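Minutes, methods subgroup
Present: GH (chair), OT, SY

1. OT presented the first of two proteins processed in the latest run. Sequence and structure tokens recorded below as shown on screen.
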Amino acid sequence: MLDIRMRSYGSYIAINLNTRRLTFYEGERLTSTYPVGVGKSSTPTPVGDFTVVVKIISPGGALGTRWMGLSIPNGNYGIHGTNNPSSIGGYVSNGCIRMYNQDVEKLFPKVHIGTPVKIRPGAADNQSGSNLTQKQAGVHIVQSGETLWQIASRYGKTLDQLLSVNNISNPDVIFPGQTIVIPK
């Protein structure tokens, strides 16, 4: 089987259903991480290795501003924006992966038809098979009660550095289990 990291310009998406996080990798380098809403227990998000098969700008309605359809058999599943931003971070969808519109708009131009998408139930965001540990990868897993300001201070970084590297637009919106990349 072809290594999923080597296809589609070396980029891939990893989705962790447990932490409700989507991470975008360019090669082995994590470049973006976003909170997502995923399937509820009665209509779970399928787990497995898929690819992006279609991209649509302005699909409208509940799909928000962008749609990236996935090669999941027996259904119409995708990564998309939402007209219900309060659903992000929950188990709320019919199986699709929901993103804030501003986040999916940042991700959309980086993703190409054929980009691999790995959807996993596990606890680690990096499901690529990489041997990097969290410490080596320069990441921090948000704990209950932590703020982005506290995390920045702990690692001797500025808030702006963390916001930029993690593509976070609102420093007040982080949650337990979220992966924060710590720049070197």
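2. SY then presented the second protein from the same run.
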Amino acid sequence: MELRQSVAMSLSEWLGFVVLWTVVGLPIGPNAIACMTATVANGWARALWVAVGITLASVVHSLIAAFGFGALLLAYAELFHLLKWLGVAYLVWLAIGLWRRPAMNVALDRPPAGRWRLTRQGFLVSISNPKAVLMYLAVFTQAIDPAAPLWPQLAVLMPTASTIVALIYGGYVLLGAPIRRLLTSAHRQRLFNRSAAGFYLFSATAVAVSDPKRMTV
């Protein structure tokens, strides 16, 4: 018992969390689309700042879940619905911007978006989804041993989660590089932008009709 309390968690428990968190984070969602569209518009090196913003949002989500605010969202439906509709509005705004984005010759040299702007975009796309907090809460509670001290476990889980997030969305940034090379015509660029806009609208609809009480991971 003393040995168990001296270690935050066993290697097998940590590996189980790594696998679960990776599986949860891999499916393509608004964050992944934000990474790939940023690469198409700015190149992969500059688009990595979007992944930085998403990673910073993951730290915030982890802290919110750790301090129990995720449970507060579940308990107070009005607060959840307010945040949910703000997230829906932001996704719709992104979709409109992508739909209206003019086609440009990506082979031409043009100034990429600023680092702060891209970091802010990644952060806002991720932080504007209140269901993300509930996902963190659900996965963390599955990984935490209630019989052991909480904060030593969080000191392992939170950096692990953020590192996995950074690797996953850094990968989606790099995935956008071959897509960028394919977009050599105005028609292809418009098709890509409008497909991404449609995905944002689909995501906004999914968030709008979601029920936090029925969320599963």
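Chair's summary of item 2: Residues 1-6, 212-217 have pLDDT under 50 and may be disordered.
Next meeting: continue with the remaining queue.
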